[in-house]
Amino acid sequence: MKIKVEPGKCQGHARCTTLAPDIFELDDDGYIAISEAEISPDQEAIARRAVRACPERALNLEEK
Ligand code: F3S
Fold this sequence. Notes:
alpha+beta; 23% helix; three-stranded antiparallel β-sheet; binds FE3-S4 cluster; single chain
């Protein structure tokens, strides 16, 4: 499973990094600093919560 970040959609709400700081990181301006992340099986539940928590729908799950 992978998370992809929709370019330009992040508005810096930081809910993703609050929920899952091991997956997401912010840049110096407070916007998401990654464009995608590989999700290990033990991170799946928290990754799904972070995707749902983003009010801008900037995060997309890719199941494989
Ligand atoms: Fe950005 Fe959404 Fe996270 S707006 S900082 S991707 S919660």
